[in-house]
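User: Second chain of the day. Same drill as before.
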Amino acid sequence: MTPNAPVKNFRFPRFGENGYTQWVLQGEKGIYDNEEQIRVEDMALRVYSGDERMAKELTLDSPGATIRLKENRAFSKKAIKIVGANFTITGTGWEWIGATKEIVVEADTVVEFTQAITGGLTEGAPAAEEKRTVIKSDQLVLQTTEEDYHFEFSGSVQAVSGDMNLESHILIALADAPGGDEEAPKLGQGKLDSVREIVAMEEVTILQGGRTVRAGEAKFLTREGRATLIGSPQIEVAGAFISGAVVRSQSGELVIEGSPSEGRAQMILTETGGLGLQGVSALSEETIVLANQITMQEINGGNRFLFEEQVEVMSGAVQLQAAKMTIQADQAKKEKPADAEGVENGELKVGEVRELVAEGGVRIEQAGQVATGEKVVFFPAEERCELTGQPKVTNGEAVITGEKMELKPKLAIVTGSENEKVSVELPEMPDLGYKTFTPTLATAEEDEKTEQVEPEVTIVRSQLLRMIEEPDRTLFRFTEDVEVSGTNLEATCARLDVIAKEKRLVSSDTKGTERLEVERIEAHDSVVIKQAGRTATASRAFIMPKEGKVVLEDNAVVNDERGRVSGFRMTLLQGQRKAIVEGGGGPGQERARITLPALPGSSEE
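Assistant: Same format as last time:
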């Protein structure tokens, strides 16, 4: 070849020391500058594996290039198009280094793969029209080995695959190297799953299906359908924010894990409501959930969140602890804009929380109330929850147990079982016993002694309890086979109302704590009260601890060892030797009456 003399439509091969073809250079016009350099117009460079496979790895086409023969290198400031198995590359300004099998594209890099790389972040395989990935970057370094193509994108990197849009500063992709194909590779000729791994690094942001995912690093194993995110990963969807130390995803299922160094997995729910004992009205707009692991699944047109290991929930005044918790929510879609006719907006939202289930050592605290049990199910739309598994509610000094509890705004309904009644422990009441008020002999009066009675916790049992929260008091309404025991008091009736209110204690010991104080007890239907050697019956009874009296109404009868007293209404005063007995006063109503025991020496008649 003559220096500076143009050669048209030439073909120039290069062979390795082993005799196999390394590359073949073709061009419309070539200028031979010297034995070290050739300038080519309309260059077509075919790069081979250089071994017995004789695999054609790449084709490089450019309007112009300089070939350094001894350096086994080509470069140009002009555009370049590179075709490999299952991909094409375009860009501006490039360099090919044959010794290391590297290609550097300096600017405006665009790479198109004929496969999707969304594996792991979506459920199921991508549709046929989505099996395409386009990656843009400022610069690309491509290296070919016997095993794979190694792509390294840098600068401002953007990858679009189906509905996924990924941005980062660095992205590395590994794809299978071609086999022994003598024909030049064409777009789509290679295996559709040839890209087996993609790693995005440095300020990774992924937009997909309404999700915004941020992380320091995202790794996709496309064949396995798995993705792993590290570096303080965060996931945002409409209605929720999730963060943790590691996020693992496969076929649309996301698992967020915490770590000792980076903290626990966290989820912040908004627009949920209804997660408290008092319903929506008692909550803040945010519900924060902490757990060692959070799993997010897209199933049946909705989202399911599974929280495991040391779950903690904070929602306004509500705090919940449990071993695990599941949230089932609708997967709502945003309304379409008014001007977007026929456009589907598939943005993922957490949607309305249909059900929340907490299990294993459940503890709920809210406004001085503490509820415990093995399982609690919240129904936010209905503003209620059900507590089972030896449930117990502590309200001030009141302790409530039963078989099942249903909690609603300002209302708790507690039911017992066939073998175990509802039980409520109330604060101690004073001894409401009274001294004998029937006539006795003088000598007996002098010998009468007042015995001190140890105070006891008041316990009420029944088949059903309704606890109603009112602005200035709490009403405990017991029904069905009611039993009461307390300080010098045993009672039964069909219905019992206990009215109590919180009393703030201010002292150096109590530090302003709240104490529940029983103000009034009302018993209805078949009332029987037993106290230290006497029995009282009536249709109604009113016990007033603060006033120190018991009022019996409607067929009131008191029996003790010294006599029987009856009337329409009877008032027994604490510690006093008198009672106020009233007749009904109306037709057919009982008059006050006293029956005394026989006098000494008289007949029983």
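Residues 181-191, 274-283, 333-348, 436-448 have pLDDT under 50 and may be disordered.

User: Great, on to the next one.
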